[in-house]
Amino acid sequence: MVKGDDAGAKAVVRVLLGLLTAGVAALLATGLPRAHAQTDFLPVPVARALAQADIPEHAAAFYVHEIGAERPLLAAGATRPMNPASSIKLVTSYAALELLGPAFQWVTEAYAAGTLSGGVLEGDLVLKGRGDPKLTLENFWLLLRSLRSRGLREIRGDLVLDRSYFAASDHDPARFDEKPTRPYNTGPDALLVNFKAVRLSFVPDAEARVVRILAEPALPQVEIVNRLRLVNGPCGDWVSRFKVDAQGGSAATRLTFSGRFSANCGERARSYSVLPHAHYVLGLFRELWRELGGTFTGTVRDGTVGADARLIGAVESPALAQVVRDMNKFSNNVMARQLYLTLGAEGAGEPATLEKADRVIREWLAGKGLSFPEMILENGSGLSRVERISAAHLGQLLLSSFRSPVMPEFIASLPLAAVDGTMKKRLSDADVAGQAHIKTGSLTGVRSIAGYVLDAQGRRLVVVSMVNHPNAESAQAAQDALLAWIYHRGAESECCLRK
What we know:
alpha/beta; Beta-lactamase; D-tyrosyl-trna(Tyr) Deacylase, Chain: A; 3 domains; seven-stranded mixed beta sheet; five-stranded antiparallel beta sheet; about 30% helix
């Protein structure tokens, strides 16, 4: 080879090296490790944890996308429609914050249907509900207290419940998992009071060698039969050590407790839902009205506010931003179902139906340029075997919400890793503790996480992971490993494995 040819070859090599260096620099400038150019490769700690849980990778989906980046950092199985469990609440809450506004409030009203004179109502008291997800015992008491402060003392008619804001439905609390007394199975209702729950406190009395059961509220229609035995020993899974037998009809019920309760448990509490909506409201109304010094001898029935009824009291819910925070932090399915139907009523007219809510949300998504054709919404809470969405589309929803005016309220509603809500006991010893706002989801055969991680470099990333598999209960280690990996953005020597 002549010198001229040698010089030309060297020049070509220099050009190629320059192009290669520029390409590598451009890739690194995106903030992505070089090995992550293939977004369908799983980080080693995640793949290892899945293998240890005996969960195949095709039963899982992962999506990670840095805010502002053009491409996802990780997208493995991200287009598969999967059951998200309670992570679907992100769709419901984001839609509500944008469509209703963070300051939106529900109003529950009281009307006098009859002549009111001298503190005596010759007629019915009508309560009109508009779907308040948080009409708690305290707020219901405030409504009744306002009626007493206005002079109402005696009601000589009935208690009429106007629940027409939601369309009537035949909700079966046993349909989902055959646990009809669990409060999360309570159906939605336009006049949902105190989540229709009775909170029972189990109080050991070591001196008397008994376990006392205290009910709040104490409703006359709910009889408690206590056959618990106080024993010594570790507390452990205290609920599994006793049996609950619920018997009764629509107007009254009996709860019989038998088994053992350890003195080492201290005082514990558990809530039960055992009465239909109307009879729960009737029982609670009677007890509170009596405590307030009022008189009522009537019964309860459904109806509507008549044209001649007079408004005599009202109570407002907390602002929507607070309701969404309570709903997402503690994954309250009943609140989510109430909110979902409210979207249907406010967006498509009363009475609310599931179909109206579904339509309102899809039209809202379309207006934002988002199309999720695989998404299936049943009730917007995640307490469903049919709800579906892909990890990629749930991730796109989170990317969209970060650009929304309601972003602060939305993110603040999510549990903070190792700090509160359903994430309070997770990742407490990890560097990502306090750095990730994560909505969790959990059903038999389903585990999911979705939210935002602030990494060690101050960059915020969207993360979604869903596992649909009989061993999903063991998927937490893999999902926690994913959050830790995002926080550190992976070690280049141990970054990826093939699918």
